[in-house]
Amino acid sequence: MPHGKPREKVVAEITVPYLTQVAAGIGQELSREDAMAFLNQEGRAYAMWKQMMRAGEEYIKSTLRGTHTITLHRPNPPRGRVAV
């Protein structure tokens, strides 16, 4: 992911192609239909979303608690005219 673009949000997705790729990485072959069924069974998609959100929150907390410094950039407010 390029570092130069300012971001207001981070979006993570677990797609069917990604799921089949991960499964292949552990020696499990999944068809598109099987991957969709996997995501939609027993609330797995929602469970994965909750886990990704928790992981993101923990990453934010640990980074903010660490030695990383955060520079806040605030735009300069427009200057009003002063009557003399």
Provide key terms for this protein.
mainly alpha, 84 residues, elongated
Report what the structure shows.
With 84 residues, the protein is mainly alpha-helical. It has a domain at 16-65. The chain contains three helices and no strands. Helix 1 packs across helix 2. The chain is elongated, with a radius of gyration of 22 Å. The model has no long low-confidence stretch (mean pLDDT 83).
Quick recap:
This protein has 84 residues and is mainly alpha-helical. The chain has a domain at 16-65. 49% of the residues lie in helices and 0% in strands.
Our measurement of the CA-to-CA distance between the termini, rounded to an integer number of angstroms, reads: 51 Å
Number of strands: 0
Using only C-alpha atoms, the radius of gyration works out to: 22 Å
Structural class: mainly alpha
Helix share of residues? 40-55%
Q: Give the CA-based shape.
A: elongated
Order of helical and strand elements: HHH
The helix tally amounts to: 3
Uncertain spans, ≥5 residues at pLDDT below 50?
A: none
How much strand? under 5%
The description of the largest β-sheet is: none
Give the overall average pLDDT.
Answer: 83
